[in-house]
Amino acid sequence: MKALEKPFSRFLGTLPFLALLFLAFSCSPDPVAEPSKSAVKPVPTSEDPDETPEATYAVTEVARGAVLHGANGLDIGPDGHLYIASVVGEEIVVMNRSDGTIIERFGKEMGVKGPDDLVFGPDGSLYWTDIIFGEVGRMTPDGVVTKQFVAPGVNPITFSPDGRLFVGLDFLGDGLYELDPNLLDPPRPIIISTPENPFPLGFLNAFDFCTDGFLYGPLFAANLVVKVDVGQAGDPVSTSPFTDGTVQILTDGFSNPASAKFDPKGVLHVLDQTGAVFKVSIKTGEKTLFTTIEPGLDNMVFDTDGTLFMTNNDEGWVAEILPGGQARIISPGGMIAPSGVAVLAGANDGDKVYVGDIYRLRQFNGQTGDQENAYKGYLIPEENPVSLIQPLGLSADGNNLIVASWFSGAVQVWDSQTQEVLEHYALGAPIDAIRFGEGIIVSDLTLGGVLWASDQSMI
Question: Which of 217, 274, 221 is nearest to 251 (CA)?
C-alpha cells in the first residue's frame, strides 16, 4: 500500500476551536421567529411639557439568510422525501424534493444534537452521526430512538449491500469502525489511531460501497480518494492501523474532497468543496470533470432512477443536479449563522454592510439589502499571501475591517478595497477586536482577558 503522507501539523491546533464552535451552538438556544419586515416604535406621551419625547425610529430587515443553518449529509427516505442533516442547525430536516417545502424537523427532542451525515437502513430506520458528541443515533420507523457512543468526530455513515453498518471519524478523530445496526454490541475498530500514528487515514469523509465489495471514500485532509477492504464480519478487533482492512489509493489531485457516491450504473462521483464534481474510473483512477458548482459543496445522494441531489454547507442550499450538470435549487442558500456585523460608510454607492458568517464574509448593500459579494474564509489560511480567516467578529477600521475568529484562532485587518490581509495575529480564541489608538485590542476566550494583538500583553 502506498504511504499516506499528510501535512497535518498546521491543522491540529485548530481542532479545539472547531469543537468549541459546535458546542457553542449546541449550548445556545435557537429561537425561531418570523419578524415583520419593519417595526416602528411610537413616540411616548408625557404629561410634562418640558420633557423631550423619545425619538421615533424604525427597524427594517436588511437581509435574510437560508432556511437551513448549513446543509450536510442527506439521504432519500422510504417516503420519497429528502432527509438532510445540519450540524450547526442541530437538526434533521425532512424536505419535499420537488419544491423544498419543509415537512418535519427532528431536533434535540428526538436526540439529534448536531448531525453531520445520515443514512437509512434496510429496515427503514434512520441513522445519523452527531460529530461533536461522538454518538450514532437510530430512529426506527415507529419513532423509537436509541444512541451509541463511538468516538468524537464520528461523521460519514453507510450500509454495505449485505446490511453491515460502517462509520468514519473526521476532524476530531480519524479511523473507521463497523457498528451493530441495533447499536448494542461494541463498535468494531477497523482502522484506528495510535500514539505513533494519530491520523492513519486523513479524515475519511462521506463514503459508499461498490458492487465489488470495497468501500470507496475521500480523504478530506490528504486530498485523495481511496478504496478500503473492510474485512469480514466478525473479524477480530484491530490493534494497529490497516491490520484488519487494507487501504489502496485510487486517485489524487483534489483540494478538499468531501463525498464519494456511486450512481445506479456503478459510476463513482466525487465532489470537492471547491465546487468541482468528478466522475472517477474505479479501474484506472482517471478523473473526468462532470460539473463545477458553487464552492462549499458537502454531500450528495443518488435516487434509484439516477437523480442526483446535493448539499452546500457554506451556503445552506439543497439542489437537484440535472444530467447536464446544472443545479436546480430546491431550497435556496444564503447566510447560515451570521455573527459579527460592521458597516463601512459609502458615498455614491451607499453604505456597505459586512456580516461574518463562519465560512463567508458577506457584503450587502445597506439600502437595498442585496448581497454584492461573498468572500471565502479559510480554517487554515494560506501563508503567501495570507488568506482570510473564518470570519466571526467584525469591526470597522476606516476603509478596512478587523476580523476576529475564535474558529481560526486569529485576528486580521482586511482591506475591503483590495481584499488583501494587511495584518495577521495568531492568538488563542479571539471573540472580538477593535482599533484603539495605534493598536488593536482583543477579547480572547482562552487567553482569558483583553490584550494587545501585537504582543499579546494583557490590558
Answer: 217
d(CA 186, CA 169) in angstroms, rounded, equals 16
* CA–CA dist 23, 422 (Å, integer): 31
Given a contact cutoff of 8 angstroms between Cβ atoms, the answer to whether 117 and 92 are in contact is no
Instruction: Residue 227: count other Cβ atoms within 10 Å of its Cβ.
Output: 22
* Residue predicted with more confidence, 160 or 16: 160
- 128: cell is 445519523
- DSSP letter (8 states) at residue 295: S
Segment 280-316, tens digit of pLDDT: 999 999 999 999 999 999 999 999 999 999 999 999 9
C-alpha cell at 177: 469502525
Q: Give yes or no for a contact between 204 and 193, defined as CB atoms under 8 angstroms apart.
A: no
Of 388, 394, 378, the C-alpha closest to 431 is 394
Any idea which residue has 443515533 for its cell? Answer: 137
26 three-state secondary structure = helix
Taken in order 266, 269, 270, 273, is the CA torsion positive or negative?
negative
- Residues contacting residue 18 through CB under 8 Å, at least 6 positions apart: 171, 172, 379, 407
Model pLDDT, residue 6: 47
Any idea what the Cα angle at residue 435 is, between residues 431 and 441, rounded to 5°? 50
> Which DSSP symbol is given to 20?
H
> Could you read off the pLDDT of 46-64 as tens digits, one per residue?
566 666 667 788 888 889 9
* Burial profile 14-36: b = 16 or more Cβ within 10 angstroms, e = fewer: bbebbbbbbeebbeeeeeeeeee
CB 160 within 8 A of CB 166: yes
What phi, psi does 137 have (nearest 5°)? -110, 155
| 175 Rama sector, left if φ>0, alpha if ψ -120 to 50, beta otherwise | left
18 by DSSP, 3-state: which? helix
Paired residues of 24 in beta bridges: none
Helix H or strand E segment including 138: strand 135-139
Distances (CA, A) of 139 to 86, 101, 347, 360, 397: 17, 22, 56, 34, 50
24 Cβ contact partners less than 8 Å away, ≥ 6 residues apart: none
152: burial class by Cβ within 10 Å (0-12, 13-18, 19+)? middle
- Dihedral (Cα; 161, 168, 117, 64), 10-degree rounding: -150
Cell numbers that stand for 213 in this block? 465489495
Is the CB of residue 262 less than 8 Å from the CB of residue 250? Answer: no
Per-residue pLDDT reduced to its tens digit, 95-135: 999 999 999 999 999 999 999 999 999 999 999 999 999 99
